[in-house]
Structure formats: C-alpha cells, structure tokens
Amino acid sequence: MTICEVPAAPAVHPALAGRFSPVGFDPEFEIGAAHVDSLLDAARMAPSAGNGQPWMFLVARRGDEIHRRLVPHLARSSSMWAPDASLLVVNCTQVLVEGTADWAYSEFAGYDLGQAVAHMTVQGLHLGLDAHQFRAFDRDALAAEFQIPPHWEATTMTAFGRASHAPGDVSSAGTSRERASRDEITWARD
Ligand SMILES: Cc1cc2nc3c(=O)[nH]c(=O)nc-3n(C[C@H](O)[C@H](O)[C@H](O)COP(=O)(O)O)c2cc1C
C-alpha cells in the first residue's frame, strides 16, 4: 500500500488528484442555493441501470431546520466535524420495490447511488467545495426522524464545504489515505 497524496499518473485531473475527505470544515463558509441546485443536477445526470435512478437526497444547510433535526443523529465520530460543514446531504437508495418486504428494486441500486454521489462530489470539486462522504450516523433514527419510507435506505451522507485543514494535516488522522497500487488493483492487463 502506498500513501497517495499525489497520484503517480500525471493525467489525473488536478481536482481529483487534490481531493480528500476533510475532518474539519470552515464553520463560516456558506453554500448558496444555486450551488446546491447544481450538486443535485450533477446527481440527476448520473447514469443508472435501466435509468432506474434509485436515489433520493435530504439536503440540510447549516443553520436551517433540516440541519437542526439531522445533526443529533450523527455518530460521535462524525459529530466532531460534520456539523461545521456548509451542507449535509443524506444519500438514500431505493432498496426494495414499494410495498414488498424482500423484492430488490434493482441489482445495481447501491452501484447507482454511489455513482450519483460521485457525480455530486466531482461537481462540488468544480465549485471549489471539499466533500467527505461518511456512514457514521444512526440510520434507523434518521429514517424515523424524516419518515423515510421502508423501501428506502439512508445509505450515507456527504458533508460539503470548505476544508479547514490540508490533506496531510495530522488532524485528519482517522481516515486512511493509503491506496493500493495500480498493479494491486489490476487482475489482467496487457
Ligand atoms: C461509503 C463510504 C463510507 C465512509 N464512511 C466514513 C465514516 O463513517 N467516517 C469517516 O470519517 N469517513 C468515512 N468515509 C471516508 C473514507 O474513510 C475515505 O474516503 C478514505 O479513507 C480515503 O480517504 P480520502 O477520501 O481522503 O482519499 C467513507 C467513505 C465512503 C465512500
């Protein structure tokens, strides 16, 4: 495993090469409604199996009522930094066909949500926003708070904002930045 602060391949887009998951956000920095719209539009444009679009989002801007209701459901770890982010987005997946107990909506629902979130994250980079995706929250309590239907799952959250520290900062300890090498992630390649 290698620390991958700067990808070896020079052709990697600078925004992607510089991307990292901050564990500190500027608590004064605000994201305007137009930028929130563009993040959602980026997700909308993502491809999905059969164009199923098995995603929904809860959008909480720091200081608004949704944010106030959401923050208590963060885990202790994420509550150290996520509330300072300008925006918290809950990324939800449609896991079941509505009204069924065990009929999967799509074999690719998780894949599709991840791709929509990736689009959103890359759009954020374009807007100068840092992002940290995370799972550290109480999924059941959040579902109850926002009455998420039972065939949906609150899968992850993304904190968007302006990082208050550099990628290599010791305060970012906790999220590993190690990466497998190109060879290690390749089973076959001529
Ligand atoms: C699905 C998913 C869940 C994650 N959950 C957490 C989490 O609960 N807490 C956390 O601090 N980071 C979480 N992360 C961030 C990863 O730890 C981070 O992306 C990884 O360590 C690589 O670091 P980097 O994003 O800075 O390159 C999560 C990332 C993903 C994609």
From TrEMBL:
Pfam families (UniProt xref): Nitroreductase (PF00881)
Any one GO MF annotation of this record: oxidoreductase activity
Location of the Nitroreductase domain: 17-77
Bilayer-crossing regions: none
InterPro entries referenced in this protein's UniProt entry, alphabetically: Nitroreductase, Nitroreductase-like
Gene3D superfamilies (alphabetical): NADH Oxidase
Keywords for the protein's UniProt record, in alphabetical order: Oxidoreductase
Compositionally skewed regions (Basic and acidic residues) per UniProt: 176-190
Spans annotated as Disordered: 163-190
Family in the record: Belongs to the nitroreductase family.
Name listed for the protein in its UniProt record: Dihydropteridine reductase
